[in-house]
Amino acid sequence: MLRKILSKTKYFLIVVLVGVLVLTLFPTILDGGSAEQVQSFVARFYVQCLGRQPDSEGLNEWVGRLLNGTKTGADVAEGFVFSEEFTGKNHSNETFVAILYRAFFNREPDASGYKAWLERLAGGMSRKSVLDGFLKSEEFAGLCNSYGIVSYAGAPTYTASTYSGYSSSGATGFQAGRKVNFIIWGDDSASDRPGGRVSGRTDINIFVHLNLDTHKAYLVTIPRDTWFGGRKINGYHASGGNAGAVRAFEQFTGAKIDFYVVTDFDGFAPLIDYFSGVDTTVEENIADSFSG
After folding, report:
1. CA-to-CA distance for 46 and 86, rounded, in angstroms?
2. Measured between alpha carbons, how far is 250 from 198 in angstroms, rounded to an integer?
């Protein structure tokens, strides 16, 4: 009985969340990142690159330039990496590359990529060239896109030909038409769980196709234990962050994912509270030793 109640609650929340997304995404063209998004984007560079919280003056300056379009994500990244504060730390090549992965890919280095960059540095490649390699990558573009920011001037729009092995309309959200794909992820992390709030495993994966012409939305649940690429599909978010998970789910579904939504256990209670709670009728007595 308890499982039945939880199942009904889960699907109710899915329907509600999709409704909110439909209302939010209804305009035919979405604006760039909000001030709050852009602040989060810049603040993470302070933490990852400089190892401190942002000062208000510097934060406001970078945010203002991003919002008015005079700076791109790559401009901000270069500003931090080549700042006197960063270069003054005299990081080793190993630390330098690790910081680039965390700051610009939102993940820990993979062994092969980490080794390759270190070998290039040892062979005489400049740190600027290494940084350019990170900033011109699809992974960094995905990070910028998640904050509503242009990655760099003249950044390409990835279309069907960019991705081999599956088809894509090449649409960039609603700007290329009135059909959009997004994915809803339920992340298993939380501030009071081991590891804290991190890019956790996506135990809920719901692919949504929204057609504004027909006013219909199609939802497909992708089970967390689905085997893809030699592993469970829910692990891609934990190992590759948002950008890595988007790539994996695009390859799995064969469709371009324009947007994604992530929530975790910390976001579950506020979501319920936002809708003034969810009433559940318990039709039978339930003995649950875990809840006291």
Report:
1. 10
2. 22
C-beta separation of 151 from 74 below 8 A: yes
For residue 68, CA distances in Å to 1, 63, 74, 219 come to 54, 9, 15, 36
The string of pLDDT tens digits covering residues 92-122 is 999 999 999 999 988 899 888 899 999 999 9
User: pLDDT class for 138, splitting at 50, 70, 90?
Assistant: confident
What is the value of pTM for the model shown?
Answer: 0.47
Distances in whole angstroms, Cα of residue 55 to Cα of each of 43, 131, 282? 9, 24, 51
3-state secondary structure 217-233: EEEEECCCCCEECCEEH
Distance (Å, rounded) from C-alpha 143 to C-alpha 181?
18
Closest CA to 129 of 149, 103, 109, 100: 100
What sign does the dihedral 88-93-97-98 (CA atoms) show? negative
Superfamily of domain 2-28+178-274 in CATH is LCP protein (3.40.630.190)
User: Residue holding tokens 């499982």?
Assistant: 3
CATH fold label, 35-146: serine acetyltransferase, domain 1 (1.10.3130)
Q: How many angstroms separate the Cα of 157 from the Cα of each of 83, 105, 144, 150, 217?
A: 30, 19, 13, 11, 25
| Six-digit token string for 277 | 């709670």
Task: Give the domain ranges of the chain.
Answer: 2-28+178-274, 35-146
- Quickly list H helices, the chain: 2-25, 35-45, 56-67, 73-81, 84-87, 93-100, 111-122, 127-135, 138-146, 236-253, 265-274
Amino acid residing at 264: D
Query: Tell me: the pLDDT tens digits for 182-238?
Result: 899 888 887 776 666 667 889 999 999 888 777 788 899 999 999 998 889 988 888
Mode of pairing for the β-strands spanning 227-228 and 231-232? antiparallel
- In this predicted structure, the answer to whether residue 261 has a pLDDT above a threshold of 60 is yes
